[in-house]
Amino acid sequence: EITRRDPTPPPPPPPPAPETPEIIQVVEEKVETRIEINTEDDASKRQMEAYVPPPPPKPKVEEVTEEIFVVVEEQPEFPGGNTAMMKFLSDNIKYPVIAQENGIQGRVITNFVVERDGSITDVQVVRGVDPSLDKEAIRVIQSMP
Hints:
By secondary structure, this protein is α+β, with helices and mostly antiparallel strands. The chain has a domain at about 80-140. It is about 25% helix and about 10% strand. It contains four helices and two strands, in the order H-H-H-E-E-H. It has helices spanning about 40-50, 80-90, 95-100, 130-140, and strands at about 110-115, 120-125. Strands 1-2 form a two-stranded antiparallel sheet. The chain is flat, with a radius of gyration of 43 Å. The termini are far apart.
């Protein structure tokens, strides 16, 4: 019988020694600086006499952006009231031919802003039916007095 002995692996290397932090000492140093200005110099007197202050800056014109109110104390009213508005809308709506041919009908819901002067701006379709009907609704609302 042959007995064989396996060589034993070498022991692992020792862990590295922990690094000791280097201590740095900070020394505050106060430095005194003295500046002497000779005010008796003729050249500086001449410069002071010749100095003209710059003109004052032009006042900035702030652009006034008006806030859009969702709820107001006094509601805008169509000239003549709601019945006049409904009459205006029905008189001015021109039903698109393509929508008539295709049998498309429905209600277009819009959103718009009534400015202080009563003009209509920012007309948007909230819920549309068909692009041709949406365009017509926007056109008629923008033409309102």
